[in-house]
């Protein structure tokens, strides 16, 4: 089984704040892994470290076999990334932005690739609209399209469904499940437990920068008919890692 993400004692401080505190975890090929935690628990910092956007204070991580500290550029070339609350450049249209990403990634068949995403996420009618004039949901669709344009084997997504309406949430959830069924790997963060409960294979629960638990979703919910929410609240309110 191929390890797509391997983190060992990964930590990141911001001044006195320990955003991520000695987290070790691994994700294997074909898994849909959800990192769950309350606001400010360290999810974004974790994703930023795994994508070479933030240097760990200590510890190490390999993503698709590449050391994130030694070669962050290669990590970002290989994987797809949807950062939290990031928006595409205001001065480009949706289509210009995707073409721009495709050229940076040196992709072929640019028109076909972009068309596929416009159709899959149902926003072909917005292709000529400047990004600054798109709704938040459509901008999020565009961020999805840019992340998956090069068909990466691994995508890291920070709060993927936050601005999407229920219909688009369904489309994206179905897409993510299909993507892992076909061999892709997803690492995403959320504080919306229903989403995790619906689509994850395995989850990690982070609180105050500490990883309190990792395990298969079916194992968490199998014992005594307990919901993921019950389990999550028990752990987080239990004060572990505080
Ligand atoms: N660039 C930064 N400078 C200073 N402190 C930071 C920075 N980024 C994160 N932090 C702090 O690190 C901690 C973890 O933040 P992080 O954004 O990783 O959490 P999160 O789980 O993604 O939160 P949310 O769900 O609210 O997005 C918080 O206390 C936050 O204030």
Characterization of the model:
The structure is a single chain. This protein has 242 residues and is α/β, with parallel strands linked by helices. It has a domain at 86-151. Helices cover 37% and strands 26% of the residues. The protein is built from nine helices and ten strands. It has helices spanning 43-50, 72-78, 94-104, 110-120, 136-148, 166-181, 193-199, 217-222, 228-237, and strands at 3-14, 17-28, 32-36, 58-63, 66-67, 80-82, 154-158, 185-190, 202-207, 210-216. Strands 6-7-8-3-9-10 form a six-stranded mixed beta sheet, sandwiched between helices. A four-stranded antiparallel beta sheet has the order 2-1-4-5, with helices on one face. Strand 1 and strand 2 form a beta hairpin. The chain starts with a strand and ends in a 5-residue tail after the last helix. The model has no long low-confidence stretch (mean pLDDT 93). The structure holds adenosine-5'-triphosphate. Adenosine-5'-triphosphate binds next to strand 2 and helix 1. This is ABC transporter ATP-binding protein. It comes from Methanoculleus receptaculi. GO terms for molecular function: ATP binding; ATP hydrolysis activity. Pfam families: ABC_tran.
Concise synopsis of the structure shown:
It comes from Methanoculleus receptaculi. The chain is an alpha/beta fold and about 240 residues long.
């Amino acid at each position: 089984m191929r390890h797509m993400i391997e983190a060992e004692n990964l930590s990141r401080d911001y001044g006195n704040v320990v955003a991520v505190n000695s987290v070790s975890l691994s994700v294997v090929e074909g898994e849909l892994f959800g990192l769950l935690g309350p606001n400010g628990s360290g999810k974004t910092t974790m994703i930023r470290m795994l994508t070479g956007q933030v240097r760990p204070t200590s510890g190490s991580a390999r993503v698709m076999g590449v050391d994130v500290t030694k070669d962050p550029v290669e990590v970002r070339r290989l994987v797809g990334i949807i950062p939290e609350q990031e928006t595409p450049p205001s001065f480009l249209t949706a289509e210009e932005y995707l073409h721009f990403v495709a050229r940076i990634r040196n992709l072929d068949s640019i028109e076909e690739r972009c068309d596929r995403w416009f159709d899959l996420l149902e926003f072909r009618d917005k292709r000529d609209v400047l990004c600054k004039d798109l709704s938040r949901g459509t901008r999020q669709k565009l961020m999805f399209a840019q992340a998956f344009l090069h068909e990466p084997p691994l995508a890291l997504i920070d709060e993927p469904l936050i601005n999407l309406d229920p219909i688009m949430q369904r489309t994206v959830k179905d897409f993510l499940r299909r993507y892992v069924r076909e061999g892709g790997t997803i690492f995403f963060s959320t504080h919306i437990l229903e989403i995790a409960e619906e689509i994850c294979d395995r989850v990690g629960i982070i609180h105050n920068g500490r990883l309190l638990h990792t395990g298969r979703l079916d194992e968490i919910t199998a014992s005594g008919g307990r919901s993921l929410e019950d389990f999550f609240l028990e752990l987080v309110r239990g004060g572990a890692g505080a």
